[in-house]
Specification:
Chain lengths: 371, 371, 371, 371
C-alpha cells in the first residue's frame, strides 16, 4: 500500500522531507562485488544540487552523502545500502506563509485532502528535495549498468519554453557536451545544441526577472542495453520507464521513440526494418526507441519527458486559504525559474534504476535453467 | 520479479496467450459486498471484442466470461475473483509463417532475446489477446468506483492519422456519444465528434484497402474521483496511470492535463487558480488534469495516449529470419487496420484499475486513525 | 494488501472455493525451457486427492488439471502458467446447516468478522480444497528443483495422536517407502516406519468410528539444495519456510533442525562442527537443519509441522448461531478423521515453492556480476 | 527479490551492519496523526540494549534513535518515517580472527556461499545488531495498536535450559512483572515467575562461567486485538506471525495456542466451544491461541518461540578455514550467554509489526464499501 519503494529486484525505498533532518535511501538487492564509494555519488548529486548556477534555486546544500551500510572494503556486499544526505540550509522562515494558503500548482491542498494535515515547511515530502535520495541511488544503478555490461544513460534538455534544440542523433550526445559548452564554459542549461542552449539561458533569465517560470522537455538516451529486458504485460520496459519519469515532480507527459508523432503515421512508415549486422540483428531505423513488445531490442532506448513551468512564482497569484477563503499569495522562497537543468540528473537516475532492476530480474529468470 | 500482476491493494494477475486454451485473471483484494455477475463484464468485453465491425480484426471470439470464484449469492465475498475467458477461434494455421521470421514492429525477436524461444502462435503472450483479461478485471474496478463513490471512466478517440477531433470538454462526453452516432448508427471508431468520426472511418477503410494501418490518440476522462488518491513519491497517481497506459500494447506516449503543450508555457499561464465552490475548493481551469503533487484534486482526471499504427501489415515487408538471414514477410492473419476503436475499453480498464487500487489504499491508511 | 499470492520471483496466485466452479493457480516467474505437462501434476494431485483411502474424506474429485497457458510444445515459455482444477462433487446440501451456526474450530466466525458475511458452502475459501491449487503449483516447483540442481523434497508422517514413528535419518526416507508398505500395500498414512504406520491406521480407524478426529506431526526433508539460498534478515529461508507451512490449514507449530528441543541445550551441545568433505565444507551433525543465519548450508533441510485434529466432528458439539444464540451442531458432511495423510503432499508443495523462489532470487542477485 | 522489507501496508525496510556507521529503518504506510517522538522508542530500545545487565553482551551502545522524517509537530504525517541508530562501540579488533575461520553455528559460511565474500566484522548483517532497527519500528507499531484500539503485546521468558516457568494465564502477565521482580529489583531474565526467574539467572551465570551458553523459550501474548485480522490463504495471521518470529536470529521453532501438544489430542479435546459473552461471541477456552482459519477471533493471541543457545562460545571449538583447512576457534568478543532476556523486546516488536500491518490491510478492504 505505501508508495515509497521503487523497483522489484534492485529496489529502493526513500524517506525525507524538505525541512526535516535529512533524506535517506535504502537500496536493497544490489549485487555483491560492485566497487562503490561516496566518490561515485558526488558527481550526480552535484549536477542536481541547488545553487549550482544562477538559473536554479539558491538554496545552499552541500549534499554530502554518507553511506551507512552495505559496502565493505570498497565493494558492495549484497546487503542493503543505506545512504543519508542531511539537509542543511532549511530556512523555514521563508515558508511560514504557506501553512495556511494553498499555493497554485502545488500539492498543499492534495496533502490536506489525503492526510488531513501536512508538513508545510518547504512542501514537506512533496518538495523536489526528495529527489536527492533518488539521484544518490541512481548513481549506484549507473555504476551497476556500466560495470555489468557497459551501459550508459545520458539526459539533456531539448526544449525550454518555445526554444527547441536540434539533436539529430541521441546516441552522439556526450556527457561532456551536456555539461560543458564548446568554449569551455559550463553548460548551465544542459542542452547539447550550443545555439539553443544560449537562447534557453536568455529565456530563463528573462522569465526569472519577470517573476515567472517556464517549462521544457528533456530527452534521455540509454545505450549498450542488452536485448531482452522488460516483462511482456504489465511490467513492460516502457511501462516501468514511463512510471519512473512520471514519478518525478512536474512531469506532464512521457513518450519514447517516435512518440506522439507516431499517431499520425501509417504502419508502413513507422515499422523499423530488421537487418543483420555482424552476428546480431538490428533495425535500420529506431522509431521504436529501443523497445518492442515492451522488451528491449538492443537498440538505443530514447525517451522524452515534458516538464511543467515551476508552480512557485514570486509574483502575486490568487488562491484560497485552508478554510476556503479567497486570498493572494507570493511565494517568496527560493525556487528554480526553470526545472530542466536540474531535471536532467533526476531523469537519468530514474531511467538507470529501471534498467538495473530489469537487468537483475532478467538474469534471475533467464539464467536459472539457461546458459 | 515476474510482471503479470498489477496494483497493490486491488491487485490483478493475468495469464494466457493468443492461441492457448484461454485467458484468466485473478482479482485479489476486491472489497466484499460488491454486487457482481457476468452481466457486469459483457458490455466492456463486447466493446473490446474482435469482429465487432469491419474496422477491426475479424477473429471471431464470443469472449464469454466465466466467474470461477469470489462471488456468492450475487456479491463479492472479499476473496479472490477468478475470471476465465476461453479462446475459441484460434486458427493457428494463419500464423505458422512467423515461427521463423521476425515481424517488423512486433515482439518476436524480443521474446527470443528474453526467453531463448517463444510461442509464435499469434504472438503468444505478446498478442493484444491478453487484454481480454484486463478488460474483464477493469469492469469489476469500474463497478467498484461507481458503487463506492459514483466514479466514472470514459474513453474515446480524438485522433486517427491526421484526422483530429474537436472535444471541447472531456467531462461532457457521454458513453452514449462514444458508442452511438447522432443518427443512431454504431459509432464504429468511438470518436464523440461525429464529423471527425466519419473521416476517421473513411481513413481506416482506405488504409485497410491499401494493406496498411494507421495510428491515433485516445483520451480518457475520469469523473467523480475523490481528492486525496495517489502517493507522494513513486506511486504518484500520474505515475501509476502512466504505467497503466504504457503497459497496453502499441502505446508510444502518455500525457495528462495540459501535457506536452505545458512545456511551452510560463508558470503564470499554466497554474490553475484555486477558488471556493460551495464548501469545497476547486480550480478555475483544469490544466493540471485533476492531479497535483501526484495526488488527485477532485477535478476531472484527463489523460491521453498515443497509439502506434498496427505493426502487422498484409503487404510485403523486408525482415530477417531467426538465424539472421534477409527475407520478406506478409502478415496474412487477421489484424486491426487501426487499433484505436478497441483501444478505448482497454484504456478505460487500466485507468479504472489504478483508481480502484488507490482508493482502497487510501481508505486503509487514512481511516485507520481517521474519521 | 491482498493475501492470495506467495513467493517473490517464482510467484503463485490462487483463487477458488470449496463449492465454486473450480480452483485456479497462476505461476508467474517460472524460468523458460522447463519440460512440463499435466503428467507432472497428476502424481501429487493424486496423493492429495480426497477419497484416496478410507482414512480420508470421501468427497469424490477427479482433480484433473488443465494447463491454460505458459507451456508450448512441452516446455514452459517463461510467461505465466495458469492451471485450472474444476470442482465436481460439491454436494452443497451437506453443508446447508452451517450457514447459520459457527462450527467449533472452524473459520466461520472469523470470515463473518472479517468480511461481514461468507460463502458458507463447505467452508468456502477457508476449506482445504484451496490446497489443490498449491499442490499443482508445487509439482511445477519440484520439477524445477529436480531439473535445475537435482533437488528433492520428501514429506512423511512421524506422529499421529500418541503414536510416534522412529525415523533415524530423514535423508534415508524414500518416496517409495512413504507411499508403499514393505508388503506392497499402499502406505495409507504415509509413515515410513511400518510398525508405527500400522498403529496409526488403527488409531485413525478407531477415532473415525468414535466420531472423533486426531492430530499429528509431519516431517519434510529437502536434499540436494545448494548452499546460499535465503536472505539475511526478514526473508530468511527458515522464515519463508515457516510461513509456508503455517499458511496450510490446521498447522499449529513449525520447527526445523533440533527445533524446540534446542531450547534445553547448551551451545557446546548444539553447535554443529564444520569439517571438510572432499572440496566442500559440511557439518558433522545436522542439528541446524540445513539453515544457518537464515541461509541454506548445503546440508539437508529438515522441518516438522504439528497438525491439529480435524475440527469437523460428526458428534454433537455445543456452539452458537450467527446471532449469538446457544445451539448444538453435528458436522455431517465428509471430512478427514486425520489430516496427516493428505497433509504430506501439501507440505511438500509449500516447501518446494519456497526453495524454487529463493533459488531464482539467488541466481538474479549472485549472477548479475558474478560467475 | 531482496529481503530487507517486512509487511505490506505498514511496511518496514531496514539496513545496517554490526560494525558499520549505523542501522536505519524506514517505516512506510504509518497512518497520519499518530503522536510520536523519540520518547516512544527509548523504552523498548533500552530493553533490547546490550550491556543492560551482566546476563547479556557487554558491548556498550547508547542506542539513541534519531527520527529523520515523517513526524511533524509531534505527529506522524503519513509519509515515511526514517529512524537512525548509530553504532558507537564497534571494537572491530575483537573480531579480526573470524575473517578467515567459520564460527560454528554462525552465518559466516552461509554468507560466503551466498555472496562470495562477507563483511566479517561482528557478523556484519547477520549480527543481531540489526534487530535494533526492528525494535525501533516495533515501538511505532505498538503505539499504533494502543492508539487505534487499545491493543497490547507482551513478551516474557518461560524457559531457559531445563528451567521451565509456571505461567497459568498469559493474559495476566503484566509488563511490570516482566521487568521488575516482587522485591523491586530488575527482572534480569524477563520471566514473570519469580522462582523460575531466580533459577534462570543462576543457570545463565553458571553457563557463562563455563564459557558456554544456553537456549530457552519465550511466549508472546497480544490482547485487545480485533477479530477479523489476517488473510484466508497465504497471509494467514499465524503464517505472518510465524514468519515474523522465525525471521529473528536463533529461533528454531514457533507455535501458537496449544501448539505441538495439539498433535496428540483428539478433536473433541481440542476444539474450543463458542459461547456468547454480552454482545460478542467468545470461546470458553483458548487452545486456538486467538486465531482460527488464519484470522484473529478476538481472543488473546498467544505464541511461543524456541531460541537456540548462543553459537558464540569463548571455549575452543573445532572448525575449518575459508579454504577448508581444519582449525580451532575461540570467539573472544562480547556475546550473550543466553539470548532470551534481549529476545523478549525483539519478539514483541515483530508481533506488533504484523498486527499493525494486518490492521491497516483490513481497514482498507473492509471499509471501502463497509461501515
Amino acid at each position: 500500500m505505501p508508495g515509497s519503494s521503487f523497483g522489484e529486484a534492485f529496489r529502493i525505498t526513500t524517506a525525507g522531507e524538505s525541512h526535516g533532518p535529512g533524506n535517506v535511501v535504502i537500496i536493497d538487492g544490489c549485487p555483491p562485488g560492485l566497487p562503490l564509494s561516496t566518490e561515485d555519488l558526488v558527481s550526480d548529486l552535484g549536477r542536481r544540487r541547488p545553487g549550482q548556477s544562477r538559473l536554479v534555486t539558491q538554496r545552499k546544500e552541500a549534499d554530502a552523502p554518507e553511506i551507512l551500510s552495505g559496502v565493505f572494503e570498497g565493494k558492495t556486499t549484497g546487503t542493503p545500502i543505506a545512504i543519508l544526505v542531511r539537509n542543511v540550509d532549511q530556512r523555514s522562515r521563508d515558508y511560514s506563509d504557506i501553512s495556511d494558503k494553498y499555493r497554485p500548482g502545488h500539492a498543499d491542498k492534495s496533502f490536506d485532502d489525503k492526510y488531513g494535515f501536512r508538513d508545510y515547511r518547504g512542501g514537506g515530502r512533496a518538495s523536489a528535495r526528495e529527489t536527492v535520495a533518488r539521484v544518490a541511488a541512481g548513481a549506484v544503478a549507473k555504476k551497476l549498468l556500466r560495470t555489468a555490461f557497459g551501459g550508459r544513460v545520458t539526459g539533456y534538455v531539448i526544449q525550454v519554453g518555445d526554444v527547441v534544440a536540434t539533436v539529430d542523433d541521441p546516441v552522439a550526445v556526450t556527457e561532456a557536451a551536456v555539461e560543458t559548452l564548446p568554449d569551455g564554459e559550463p553548460n548551465l542549461v544542459r542542452c547539447p545544441d550550443p545555439l539553443a542552449a544560449q537562447k534557453m539561458v536568455e529565456l530563463i533569465d528573462a522569465v526569472r526577472k519577470d517573476q515567472d517560470s517556464v517549462g521544457g522537455v528533456a530527452e534521455i538516451c540509454a545505450t549498450g542495453i542488452p536485448a531482452g529486458l522488460g516483462e511482456p504485460v504489465f511490467d513492460k520496459l516502457k511501462a516501468d520507464l514511463g512510471k519512473a519519469l512520471f514519478s518525478l515532480p512536474a512531469v506532464l507527459g512521457v513518450e519514447y521513440g517516435i512518440g506522439f508523432r507516431g499517431a499520425s503515421l501509417r504502419g508502413s512508415e513507422n515499422n523499423d526494418i530488421f537487418v543483420p549486422e555482424g552476428d546480431r540483428v538490428v533495425t535500420e531505423t529506431n522509431r521504436h526507441g529501443g523497445i518492442l513488445g515492451g522488451i528491449s531490442t538492443g537498440m538505443p532506448i530514447v525517451l522524452r519527458a515534458a516538464v511543467k513551468p515551476t508552480s512557485s512564482l514570486s509574483r502575486e497569484q490568487r488562491t484560497v486559504t485552508r478554510s476556503g477563503e479567497v486570498t493572494t499569495i507570493q511565494t517568496k522562497g527560493r525556487h528554480d525559474p526553470c526545472l530542466l537543468p536540474r531535471f536532467v540528473p533526476m531523469a537519468e537516475a530514474m531511467v538507470a534504476l529501471v534498467l538495473a532492476d530489469h537487468y537483475v530480474r532478467w538474469i534471475g529468470q533467464s539464467r536459472t535453467l539457461g546458459p
